[in-house]
Every structure is written in structure tokens, then in C-alpha cells.
Specification:
The chain is an alpha/beta fold and 407 residues long. α12 crosses α14. The N and C termini lie far apart (80 Å). It has a five-stranded parallel β-sheet, with helices on both faces. It has a four-stranded antiparallel β-sheet with strand order 2-3-1-4. A two-stranded parallel sheet has the order 10-11. It contains 17 helices and eleven strands.
């Protein structure tokens, strides 16, 4: 099987928002007539299509997409608007689990994946690991009694910061549910949506409701809805109306609500409000502490077949502190970035010295620190190198001038 990803320019799509049928929906409708494409997943600007290359070649498939587009929009510049990518599509374990026609019970064989093993190996995320064990424990009883609706009645509320691995957690949760045979998950099971800022109307919910309207009990998706913009508006009448719509699609989507990492009391208030209409389980994903940062970095270094000496870790944490100082520390993503910087510096040293050493020492590690090249920089010079420190520098200069005047 092959997968074809069709993407349209976002601004161009917005210019057609008043059309009776939006561009992606129009293209999807035309493709169904060819009887060789399976439309797997779509959004406002993209469409994922599966096809058997024994029935239609990749180039011919791409050509048909372009023909459909030009037929619908003959005056548009296709090269600037349409992008088509073709890649191999490997059938997952979930693709091999089928529902008997007319039956609500799923055929199930022993899990071939290792989602639970991956989850148990995660750094931090204690509450998420506890949830995974709970789902694993109850799965057999749910299947024995056929009470799948009890499982689908459960929603989740994740409190997690930006860049802290949300997509990874969602993917692992979907994989675990599929492997346990609790439902047949879609081939691309995770979908993430975000509610737009508060307006006293149903407008901010339209994109999510459009996604919910495309649900399928035979191919369940995990839908993550970012409600950050509505954290203090969950009692709004339109939000409650939206929750009732979510409830109606509970057997087509496993729903995860997402808010930033907040205090436990605030999280409890949000959960309480959501619980009026849904059965919601709240989970916190606290930022990594120093030991967890080091543990995660060690995993990444080991994956790349490198390691740090004891003294080199001081430079690593100095670089992490620099990342935090500009207010743009993104957890897992930032740690991965710093690890890759370390490995790159080491490989550059190896290339120049014609070595193959994989142990990164302090001399190599200090090259990733901003002050490493010139340790003789003055305090003002070091302050100037920090992003967004202009107002702080100006105030310090005023204080120094006042001290000089007093002396």
C-alpha cells in the first residue's frame, strides 16, 4: 500500500471559506469516484489517501489528484497551492484487527506491539504510566463482559506544558488501546485540535465539531482538544453545548482535553466543570526535575551512541540554564536540541582530529555554552548577549551610575 498526502496552501483555503464545499472536501468527493483511493484522514488544508500501487501507479495517482484540482479550480496556480507527497504505508497491528459485521465485539489476538513497555520506560510522567497500567489491567474484563461503552465513557484531561511530549503521550495511549483490543484504532489514530479564543457563540468550536462529524465506530481516533483558551470559561453555555456534542461521539473518538501545566487545585476545578457532562480523568505532567532531565539526556545520548564525562554534565546543565533564561525552554524538545548540539561539536572535533571517540569531555561540551568562547567577558557584555535583557541592562546601568555618584 502507498500513502499520498495532499496539502493545500492555508491562505488560499481561507480565501475559499465562503464556498459551498470547501476545497479539501470537494477534492475528496471527486476522488471517491475513481474507486481506487481510500480517503483515510482529512483536515481543512490536508488529505491523507491510501491506494494499492498494483491498481494504480504512484505517478498516475499524483496525476489524477492534479487533474481533479485543475478541473475544480482551472484558473489557479497549482504549483503554488497544491503539494503532493507519496510514501510507503505499512499496515499496523490495528489494521489487522477486524470487527465482525453486525457485531459490537472486536476479534482480538495477543498484542504484538510494545506500547506498555515503552510507556513504562518513560522518564517522569508517573500519572500517565499509572493510567496505562490501569487500562491494561481492566482490558480483559471489558472484553469478557462486552462492556466497551464503559471504557468509551472515559475522557481524559492532560495538564502539560508546551513541548513536553504531548504528541508522544497521545500516540502511545492510542497504540496501547489498539494493542489491548479495546477498539480498532484508525491507521493514523491521533488528531490534535485547538479551540480558538473565547467568543460568546459556537464559532470557536466549528473545526472540532467538523472533525467529530467525520467519526467512524469501525475506525476509532484519539482526538486531543486543546481548551487552553477556555480554561476559565468552561461553565459557558456554548462550551456546555459543545461538551454534549463530544458526548454523542464517544464511541468514535477517545477524547483527551489539554490545558497547560497548572496547579493541582486549578486542574481540579477544570475537571469538576467538565465532569458535569463527561466522565473525566485528570493527569498532570510536571516539568522534569534535574535528575529527570539528566536521565532523558542519557537516553538520547545512548541512542546516538555517545556519552558525557562527569565534568561535561556541568556544561550541559549550564546550556540548559541558558535555554531557560530566555523564557523559551520547551522540555523534551529543548533537551534533544542540546544533546544534538553536543554530539555535533564532538563529531566536528573528531573530524578535525581524525578520531572516532564517542565520549564527550568538558572541553568539547563547553563549546555549546554562550560564554565558552570568551571567559573574560565583562558582566555587562555577558548581559548584552542574553535575549530580551535590554531593559534589565538599562536599569543596572542606572543603579551603577547612582552608586558612582554616591561614592
Amino acid at each position: 500500500m502507498k500513502r499520498m498526502i495532499v496539502e493545500l496552501d492555508g491562505q488560499w483555503v481561507l480565501s475559499h471559506r465562503e464556498d459551498e464545499i470547501l476545497p479539501i472536501a470537494a477534492i475528496e468527493s471527486e476522488l471517491k469516484a475513481f474507486d481506487v483511493f481510500e480517503c483515510d484522514e482529512s483536515s481543512l488544508t490536508s488529505l491523507c489517501i491510501l491506494f494499492d500501487e498494483n491498481k494504480i501507479g504512484a505517478e498516475e495517482a499524483k496525476s489524477k489528484i492534479e487533474s481533479v484540482f485543475l478541473e475544480k479550480y482551472p484558473r489557479e496556480n497549482i504549483r503554488e497551492i497544491l503539494s503532493v507527497q507519496i510514501e510507503d504505508h505499512e499496515e499496523s497491528f490495528e489494521d489487522l484487527v477486524f470487527e465482525d459485521e453486525g457485531s459490537e465485539e472486536w476479534e482480538y489476538s495477543e498484542p504484538k506491539g510494545d506500547a506498555l513497555q515503552k510507556i513504562n520506560a518513560l522518564v517522569g510522567a508517573a500519572e500517565f504510566r499509572s493510567l496505562a497500567k490501569e487500562i491494561s489491567d481492566i482490558a480483559a474484563e471489558i472484553k469478557r463482559t462486552g462492556t466497551y461503552e464503559v471504557f468509551f465513557n472515559q475522557c481524559y484531561l492532560f495538564s502539560i506544558g508546551e513541548g513536553r511530549g504531548l504528541t508522544t503521550y497521545l500516540t502511545l495511549l492510542a497504540q496501547l488501546i489498539g494493542e489491548l483490543g479495546l477498539c480498532k484504532m484508525s491507521a493514523n489514530p491521533v488528531r490534535e485540535e485547538k479551540l480558538s479564543p473565547f467568543r460568546d457563540e459556537m464559532g470557536p468550536f466549528e473545526d472540532v465539531m467538523r472533525t467529530l462529524g467525520k467519526g467512524d465506530k469501525k475506525s476509532v481516533k484519539l482526538l486531543c482538544i486543546d481548551i487552553s483558551e477556555w480554561m476559565d470559561k468552561t461553565d459557558d453555555r456554548y462550551f456546555k453545548q459543545f461538551l454534549r456534542i463530544v458526548e454523542k461521539h464517544s464511541e468514535e473518538f477517545i477524547v483527551v482535553f489539554r490545558v497547560p501545566f497548572v496547579d493541582k487545585d486549578i486542574l481540579a476545578e477544570i475537571r469538576f466543570s467538565l465532569n458535569d457532562l463527561l466522565n473525566v480523568r485528570a493527569l498532570s505532567f510536571p516539568p522534569f526535575n534535574r535528575n529527570e532531565i539528566k536521565e532523558f539526556a542519557e537516553h538520547e545520548l545512548d541512542r546516538l551512541k555517545f556519552s558525557l564525562t562527569k565534568t561535561a554534565w556541568d556544561c550541559f546543565f549550564e546550556r540548559i540554564s541558558e535555554e531557560k533564561s530566555d523564557g523559551k525552554f520547551y522540555g523534551i524538545n529543548t533537551i534533544k536540541k542540546v544533546v544534538k548540539e553536543l554530539v555535533y561539536c564532538k563529531q566536528l572535533q573528531n573530524a578535525r582530529a581524525k578520531k572516532t571517540d564517542t565520549v564527550i569531555g568538558k572541553n568539547e561540551a563547553k563549546n555549546i555554552c554562550s560564554g565558552a568562547d570568551d571567559p573574560k567577558l565583562s558582566g555587562f557584555e555577558m548581559l548584552s548577549k542574553l535575549v530580551g535583557s535590554e531593559s534589565i541592562k538599562k536599569r543596572i546601568e542606572e543603579i551603577v551610575a547612582q552608586i558612582d555618584l554616591s561614592l
